[in-house]
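Please review this one.

:::
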Amino acid sequence: MSFPYPSGYAPTPGGYAPAPGGYAPAPGGYAPAPGYPPSGGMPQPAPAPPGLPYAAQPYPSAANYPPGNAFPGQGGMPMPDQSSGYPSAYPAYPSGGGAPYPPGDNSSYPPGANPPYSQGGMPYPSGANTSYPPGGGTPYPTGDFNPSAPAGSTAYPPQIGGSNTVAGGSPYPASGSTQNSGSPYPASSSAPYPTSNQPGSSTMSSGYPTAASSSTKGSTPSVKPQPTNSSATSAYSSQLKDGNLTSYYECAKKPGDSGLVKPLTSGFDPEADATQLKNCLKSSFLNETVIVNILPHRSNAQRQKIRLMYKTMYGKDLLQDLQDRLTGDFESVTVGLLMKPAEYDAYLIHRAIQGLGTDEDVLVEILCTRTNAQIQELGHQYRELYKATIEQHMQGDTSGHFMRMLISLSNGARQEDQGVNAQKAEDDAKKLYKAGAARLGTDESTFNSVFVSQSFEQLRAVFAAYQRLYKKDMEKVIKSEMSGDLEKGMKAIVRFTLDKHSYFANVLYKAMKGIGTDEKSLIRTLVSRSEIDLEQINRSFSNIKGESKPLSHWIKKETSGPFRDMLIHIIGGGH
């Protein structure tokens, strides 16, 4: 129930102060109401004669009532009926003064004639006292002065290191600036920033602009910069330039490595290839041979040119069109060949994490065997494709020391440029012994810190030192000290460190040996190593203990149809 209040009364939280003459009595005491204590059966003041003001009488047992300043003065106005209790201590604000705010000298609101957004109206500062810089007619400050200059100055510093300082100075160093000339950016050759050689040079191209790069609008690096660790090797771009990918594959090669899929050196025509693929896909009878005769006969860089030309000519994505028409293992291998290498690795990791159950083998294989540059680029692709980091997704699907190992690997910060240090290798071998065989239980963190941070060359020296000191090879140490996925991951690092070609040859062998075939492992290994070291893996396959048949024999035996044809073309070099 609401009651009218006399004009001019501001609402008072907690009730109203006592009024001269007292409150009207109510039979049986005052009804309970918010903010008022129950009367507790206390005697009520005697009523006054009808029609006359109520006689001033003391409140009964005043200690049971709120303090007097909690009630407004009555001011001679009639009191509302209390038969249904006192009104709420927080009633609605009355209208007054023609404004949404009640008049009154003590109001915390500005007067109605002065809207709260008026210049100078409290608590809003006046324009002269604002903390915002003048914008010269725009929301942006002018750029004529440095930050310490008076009004009109910009918050942006002048261009650093160049011969000219222009209005609206860029936070980027000017052309020709270097670390020594005051630029906050190091020179392109400074660690940990990569050099900026162009694709095709012996040093991989950087995704970062050099110190001489312009900050002109519209100029962008070839790939978005990646967060790097100071020990990481140089980043690189996977963007097409002059028909070559630089170089997700090249950075993984060691001297003597050679892939079996090579670029088509003469007669490569992306327009003709795109036309053939379009005619094949739109036909009611799909001739897979057309696809088999094109994709494994081109390098990945050339496939990207075909994909781009296809979209240019037909306004559709070749990859999507292939997925729409193809099925099964043939679709899987075709998709793998057509994706960019980093995109493919990111896709494999996402499928391993987000699929039905977690495929730990895929996570282990990719993260344990890729170089720093590869891991950084596939991490970038993962964020672009799935709007999250690999680490964020792994934390929801893995746990414990295995998760920590994968997160460490996903940083791509192994000390790849580390020279072999025999003394450090011996020290680390002793550290591993103390963390494992010399104690009850295992200190997994020590194993992780050594296995993930040291270069593969240095790890080989550590394993050799451990064998020399304690007469036990490292794989057996891992088997005795660990179990489950962590054991699997640590063993993968040991095996890849000792012989990477043998490691992948055994992945292929296990995929085909026994009942059934692991087509996913078969596709993943052949596609991802096709332009890196598949030739050496192919030879190593024949050297597996107890196996005399070549890889091609196993593929023909374990697969069939267009899927088999595609795999045979891959290991045959596509020519």
User: Anything to note?
Assistant: The first strand starts at residue 240 and ends at 241. The two ends are 92 Å apart (CA to CA). The chain has 20 helices and two strands. The longest helix spans residues 300-314.
